[in-house]
Amino acid sequence: METPEDKxxxxxxxxxxxxxxxxxKSIHLExxxxxxxxxxxxxxxxxxxVVTLDWKVTATSQLGTEESLVxxxxxxxxxxxxxxxxLNREPCDAGPQSALDWLDRHFMALxxxxxxxxxxxxxxxFRLPCKAGKEIEDLRDKSExxxxxxxxxxxxxxxxxxxxxxxxxxxxxxxxxxxxxxKSPFTPPEEWVRPYHPLITVxxxxxxxxxxxxxxxxxxxERPAMNxxxxxxxxxLWEAQPPSKPVFQQAMRxxxxxxxxxxxxxKKMRAIRKRLMQKAAEQQATVNQGSESTVTEExxxxxxxxxxxxxxxxxxE
Length: 317
Known about the structure:
With about 325 residues, this protein is α+β, with helices and mostly antiparallel strands. The protein contains nine helices and eight strands. It has helices at about 10-15, 100-105, 135-140, 145-155, 200, 230-240, 245-260, 265-290, 295-315; strands at about 20, 25-30, 35-45, 45-65, 75-90, 115-125, 175-180, 210-215. The protein has an eight-stranded antiparallel sheet. α8 (about 265-290) packs antiparallel against α9. The longest helix has 27 residues, at about 265-290.
């Protein structure tokens, strides 16, 4: 059993266990004392990534101080560490039975390779990472040019997952610890089989680099959060050179190509419609030859019946 003297400086990682991006823990990481854990991304009823992970701190680049430099306004640094994380092609116990098939269909082998990260662990007062909505709105409203640029992202979820902080303190969620990654531990677009997949283009996994743990009691919810300025700067950097923009543009090009290129199914249905129109025209001509009057309702019904029968036959083939 570990004593306080034996505990490593990063022990808060597994003592707090769950580090979340949002209040529902839809996107979170878990670190267990035995070097195991899990990565959990369940969003909008979709299990994007629900797998086990292995982790190991490999180096300590800086240890924290006993107190923060500016108490009550600045977070206390607990340490900076190098960490190796390996996501496993192994669904969590709490995940769906079909998760393994999902992983094989959507992720490349590179997604299951060990990766190196640098992390910063802090103690203080932190709001949820997902509450940067106001910063995004401020950036979008800064100028007309920025408005147009961000409006394109807005329609595809750029600001959908970042929400404004609650006005009422009683509805806020503030946390006592924060971990920041130098890059997201979730699989980037280039490790997906289809980097233009909707779950990539609307969720921006590379923006998930900040996680919090240990929710503070309600009596402390009125304290100012210490990560607002950091989130504001991150939003500015994401828009200045958003990693998802090439993928976003690729997705838009792919959609445009799909409009221009007919799939085999499209061609078959168009051929069916063409034959039906020709047959209907022939029947119309036959009816007109037998009578100078307009086509009767019975004739129209016969045309529709034959057309429907022909379409069903073609689909069965």
